[in-house]
Amino acid sequence: MRNFIIITIVLLCMICQMGCQEKSRTILAVKFENDSSIKYRMVSERNVETDLDGSAGKSKPTNISEKLELVMSYSPVGPVEVYGITTMKAVCESAKVTRRGLKGKPSADVADLLAGRSFNFTISPVGKVLDNSEMDALVLELGNKSIKTSDRQGRMKSPDMIADFIALQKHLWDSVTSVPQGTVGAVKGQTWKRLEYIPLPVPVRAAREITYTLADGGPGQVEAEGAERKVEIQSTFALSDEKLPDWPRLYERGFRMQGMFGFLRNYKFKSLEGSGVQVFNVDSGIVESDEQEYRLLITASFPAPLGDPPMLTIDQKLTIKLMAD
After folding, report:
1. pLDDT tens figures, 126-145
2. Could you give the CA distance from residue 322 to residue 177 in angstroms, rounded to a whole number?
3. Spatial contact of 209 and 239, defined as CB atoms under 8 Å apart
4. pTM metric for this prediction
């Protein structure tokens, strides 16, 4: 009898524990409403410190800072089908690039020309972008505008932040659409990985591995009756050697870079460290905020052997914030 009671208590505890685990699961899904739009302020900013003496430290490093500020709105085109593919329209309401540290008067950035432009894309019921061909065509058009041809210098490219624009667009719903949750949802403490490209001041492709974690606690675990449920998705970053197939082409034909970045060669990525946090509204299916910060170390070389390899230190910050209607 005593053994029967003990077994019964153990079974009841297991059932209660399973029930609690089921309650802690959350379905994460991006949602869109008919005849409505969502608007975000998006910012990509970085400081690039270039030490031409590398570890020797014989000269003072130079610093360049650049910042892209966007206001983007997204709205469905036509009726939203809950279990179907939705066509979305993205409109860039404003775009502004500021840059400091370059010698001479900086030229206008072609990313400024994003203001007033729009593109359509299709998205799955879980928020995965299926067709981004219109955005790909737009960035190729603007990227080519950054290249000027002259008899003396040939094809020369000015600095631009088009890659930052792409990185912000591709990241917006990435954490939610990549979580493996099936039909039962995600559980607190769950982790998953994703690859994204790194926006850089030089047209060199590099990827970072993002490890997402559905936070156990934080501002998202709202229990008050009638309050909207929100979750916090934390992330950490590391370098990856993999190449992603869906990064759009930005420029046609060959070119040279203006300034120091065009003078240096053989960029090699040494390390990347950083973290981020996103707040996702479960009830509305909307990303409310996203912040990412990381430091990237890169070595380069001169056209001819001139001593220690130059070192580039890039401090990057990307922020996305939902704007009020």
Report:
1. 788 999 999 999 999 999 99
2. 18
3. yes
4. 0.87
